[in-house]
Amino acid sequence: MKRHIGVRIAKDQKTNKIALGPEMKEYFDKLSMGKNHIDYIKEFLITKKNYQIVEEAMTKAKTDSLPPDIEDNCQYCNDSSDDENDKKCSRYYAQMDITYLLSANEYIRIVLSNKHVYDNKKLLLLLTQKFFKCFHFIKGHGLMYFDLDAMIRETLNIGFLSVSQIFSKSDTLKNLSEINITLNNIEEETIQNKVLEKEDYYYLDLQKEFFINKQRFYKEKLFIENQESSKKKSKAKTDIKQSIPKYVLYYYYLQLSGDFPYFENHPGGKINGIKDVIKNDQIATTPKYFQIKYNKIAHYKSNRIAKNQESNIDYVANNMLNDYPIAKEIALSELQQAQSKYR
Predict the structure, then answer these.
(1) Whether the Cβ atoms of residue 173 and residue 30 lie closer than 8 Å to each other
(2) Residue in 145, 148, 136, 128 with CA at minimum distance from that of residue 40
(3) DSSP labels for 112-173?
(4) pTM of the predicted model as reported, rounded to 2 decimal places
(5) What are the pLDDT digits (tens) for 109-134?
(6) Please, which residues have CB within 8 angstroms of residue 266's CB and are 6 or more apart in sequence?
């Protein structure tokens, strides 16, 4: 069943203005926490110009909806009475103003209960503009009504956009956690509606569908992220292993050229000499692994100038040994040997 907000004042009921005393005014200010519906709507519309545009449009729409002969039959307009309460249009404006007040308060309640919408000022402005489009005027009758269902659907749509923007800036696992909590809350509310035989006024099925889609998306995103992370870790390990032979060749050639002492000559012994090199150069390996690679290359020339070492010797000679001409010359010589050996 469609839900509308609208007020009609009985035709024979006269409207009167009542001035509020200071105490009553203070009481109503406390009820609204110092802000009334106009204050909130102005806040939501951001600028004075935006508020002026919608206020003028609403005033025109109200005036255009009045009965066509209202001015002809009005005592006040025809100077037959000085009492403003005799204005024929008062009842019509009053019923439309009350409708606006009730609708605005309901809209404000919806916005304030959806913090993610309230905090997104750009989307809140868009939603507030749509709020005014949910008013409908019955021309010739001075009546207007507010389509509450349309407003809730618009709020849901803006809410979904806002949530999507928040998710796009958050961690995947955090998003999944929030989605699970929200889906659980929707399920609980759905069950409660069934138990109490309450109508679903907030389109819980649509909300559930939205969050299930988001859940599926972020589960797949998490899977892809984990796969990419595993590949990066695997590649990093491969890169580290591939870099060790370069460091081994680098220090081997420095030792041959006399630019760096042999590990065996270290005061603490060979293994401590290797440990110092690993620590100083922050090489991601163990002393034992480095020593195995070093022995393999230093003690066996066939391993050093093997086909699989060509690129390593080339890199060491032309990138790592530029400040050591003798060591570089030795490396380039062995590079030639490695290249000619397999051609």
Answers:
(1) no
(2) 128
(3) HT-HHHHT-HHHHHHHHHHHHHTEEEETTTTEEEEEHHHHHHHHHHHHHHHHHHHHHTS-HH
(4) 0.62
(5) 999 999 999 999 999 999 999 999 99
(6) 272, 273, 276
